[in-house]
Amino acid sequence: MTKTVPVERIVEAAALGATDFGENRVQEAREKQAVLGSRFKVRGTSNLQPVRWHLVGHLQRNKARLAVELFDVIHSVDSLELGQELERHAAKRARGSRFEARGLGIEPGAYSLEPLEVMIQVNISGEATKSGCNPDEAGRLAAAVGAMPHLRLAGLMTIPPYTEDPEQARPHFRRLRELRDALQSSLARGHAGTRALLLSMGMSHDFEIAIEEGADVIRVGAAIFGAMA
After folding, report:
1. Cys-Cys crosslink for 213: which of 6, 153, 173, 184, Cβ 3.0 to 4.6 Å?
2. What would be the CATH architecture of the domain defined by 56-225?
3. What is the pTM of this model?
């Protein structure tokens, strides 16, 4: 996570091989990308590739258009309405890219734009202050989002209550894994080749526990950059 991290330190991290950067706020990501460029390349490697930008914080529907422009992965889809808004803007982006391709003389069908990767945020703990859908609603939301042509359902995300003892986060991580496993089985029925759903869970103070419980994506910032204001 690079929330509040200055762009100079992001450049340093990329030079050391970091390829994925996470932000909590759309506006902060926009300001950083204005300096770095949205297709900021990983440095210090023989094969330069653009880094991937992840939105982990809560996303308001009125910022969906900007989010589609700025991010490669959105971890915080928590309602059907937000999913539909992201689909609408992702479809517009795809249409615009096809028009641009035709202007460059690229044959129809030879140009494709990958769907926007999204994750369903699940409020496993039930905290009123946390975003995320109810666990009982996650299956229906995931099925609906997974059917949207310009989005790709990548997995599930959760943020457990913060406690000094990271072991207390384990039941929340375990429940998300169990929910993912049940959902994966449900989505796979009759759909051969269904992609494996990832788990985005765990931060600097509890990522070891999250990994033990099956995390595929961990969100560490303070562990790398130190505590930031």
Report:
1. 173
2. Alpha-Beta Barrel (3.20)
3. 0.86
